[in-house]
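Q: For a teaching session next week I want to show students how multiple molecules come together into a single three-dimensional assembly. I've collected the sequence lines for a complex. Could you give me the predicted structure tokens for the whole thing so I can convert them for display?
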Amino acid sequence: MCFACQIVPQDVLRRFSKDRSLDEEQRKHFTDTLKIDTELRKLRDQAAKLTRIASAIAPTTALAAVAPAPAVTVFDCNHNQTLPGAQVPNPGTSSDVVAKRVFTETTSVAAFYSQVFGRNSIDGAGMTMISSIHYGINYNNAFWNGTQMTYGDGDGSIFVDFSRGNDVIGHELTHGVTQHSLQLNYANEAGGLNESMSDCFGSMFRQWEARQTVSQADWLIGKDIMGPAAISRGFSCLRDMANPAAKHCLAPQPTKFKQYKAGMDPHLSSGIPNLAFYSVAKAVGGNSWDKAGQIWYRAMTGFGPSPNMKMKAFANRTRAVAAQLYPGNTAVAGAVDTGWKKVGL
Amino acid sequence: MDTLKIERIGGFAGFGLPGSKLRSTGEQAMSALSPADQATVEALFRNPKGAQGTGHERDAFRYRITRTVKGKDQTVEVAESAVPPALKACVSDKLM
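A: Of course. Below is the structure for the complete assembly, covering every listed component.
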């Protein structure tokens, strides 16, 4: 049975399932895949509908406050690529260190969003936080698929286990928060903003857990998942929010909006708003989540969906939000304005 | 004509992006694939728009698959979930 075929067009699957030039086993394979595909499409449509409805009837602050803390579940893919895998019973006390870590850190991200921003889980209404671990073999990635997080073990050479980075866990969960708030697309300027939100809140979460001020923080993304081969070549991170073009980054990024080109991958263009956020937080001082984070969070969650938002529009929104949240505070207003001007916005 | 060139791109780490130090590539003979996988690959080239994922994936890998037909390269870029495991298994990650 081939779950990999799930998004091959249904007419193609149907044709192959009846193609007499294929043997019986192959035809059965396509028949089975067609059945699975049909159910998965229903599931995806339902998930999309749920996102829209949840967004339209977003809970009031009072309701969100009384909703219970989100359940955190962990599943083990056992090195396959079928999600979600087998549920890990009692992951918080599991003998599998990865399961235990993912449970602990995901619970901590929930606490971060709750205590710092007053948000109850990914959707603001206590949505269960689902994670799958041990995905694939030597899999060098972590991703959000629209309903859950997934973590690979890394190849042990370039990368180690992706769940070792608490900023990685914060990053992936924030993709869910964005999906349930600003609903940014994943292409062009909106895509860059989407990636940047995840880096900003992932980095803030890492600083919050370490109780680091903006001056103590290293502002690196992916530092804790770098493997021995990467470290020996002088790479200390994937991205550096303070210096996106730095040579110690495995994936250096542009630093000015004038470098942006339409169609640029979100993991490149996110360097521009990342540097703006770093500059704002550094200028304001103290803890990143106390003021700069509050401005970014309100700009992300306080205005409803804006799937095709441009970077300039987001920059201007943070300027407006800074004035609303901190009226008369010229230091904060100046920091936000200067931070965006530094990147040409 | 028989050889498929595969590149895995994107992901949280940004494989294959301009300036990135990460590449993930491989090759696979079409004739070495099972008939079912060959049929899936043909379907990907016939309708790559139908293999773009759900639209909600973030940081997911994508695959760029190239074949040569009558002397001309044809390339499609599709979601990881659409690629047969045998093709996914042929790429290897490298530091540049």
